Amino acid sequence: MSANNQSSKPWWRQVLTPGWVIAALLIGVFSYYAFTFLAPWQLGKNEALVERNEHISAAFEHDPEPLSSRVDDDGSLGADAEWSRVVATGRYTGDDVLLRLRPVDGTPAFQVLTPFALNDGRVIVVHRGWVKAENSTQVPAVEPAPSGEVTITGLLRADEGEHPNPPMHEQGYDMVYSISPTQVGSLTGTDVVSPYLQLLGGEAGVLDPIPLPQLETGNHLSYGLQWILFGLAAPAGLIYFLYSDSRERRRFEAEQEQLLLDDSPAGSPDPTAPAAPAAPTRQRYGSSRANPWAKAYDKEEER
């Protein structure tokens, strides 16, 4: 195919090669994944942490509320009620259930969950805190919850849902892998409400209280923005390289056309025309470097 025919092809036909097509498909998949999953994933985590921090801060800005005002009549957690600081009156009932395989501040621990019967007849699971595991796996002696009626204050927490691993009975305790009040209720034979109550320090029945989370959001916002930037930069880079490749192809074709014109018969010299005088060539050492003995040699030859 001649250079003229090649240059007449549109630029998009010139770059429509398997390599560019595969690159465009891969970049398209990456950008779609960045916009629809990676960026929303990080931005969603940032939004959830911001909301959690606001609720925790608000919980300590006023007096605790009655638990009944934050738990609906059907036992579900009220809207925006998680991390609310509430007060409840009743008595501990039932056996302790241990949450396993969840360290606290890097320390192997068992977290203690105990049903608490409220004065209004409902039952809520109370997270009494944690105890340090002995030899990383053994359950230590767990201080029992006080008997009799007590008033406790804690933070309302949402049901984590049941873990895929079923509960187990070991070392004299029922053990679970997640904090699911429904699962704890089935193990203790009680009908419990959906949320659970995480005790604060100094309350009746508390062990070592679970520390509150740090009120920070981490780098999730910047990570989300970075994924958006990557999703935009990838196709922009592809367009730039496509343009550069097309420009290089056009430059190469123009050079080929010029070479064809230079080699055509119309551009060949006339053999009958006198030859053009040769351009003076520069002396190797320049005119100022003439041989000083040249004249002497010439005179010697004349003799």
TrEMBL record:
Renumbered residue ranges of the record's region Disordered: 255-303
Keywords: Cell membrane, Membrane, Transmembrane, Transmembrane helix
InterPro entries named among the record's database cross-references: Surf1/Shy1, Surf1/Surf4
UniProt xrefs under Pfam families: SURF1
Residue ranges with Low complexity bias: 257-281
Membrane topology according to the record: Multi-pass membrane protein
Gene Ontology cellular component annotations, sorted alphabetically: plasma membrane
Protein biosynthesis is among the record's keywords: no
Protein's cellular compartments: Cell membrane; Membrane
Transmembrane segments: 20-43, 223-243
Family the UniProt entry places it in: Belongs to the SURF1 family.
PANTHER family: SURFEIT LOCUS PROTEIN, SURFEIT LOCUS PROTEIN 1
Name the UniProt record assigns to this protein: SURF1-like protein
Species whose genome carries this gene: Corynebacterium pilbarense
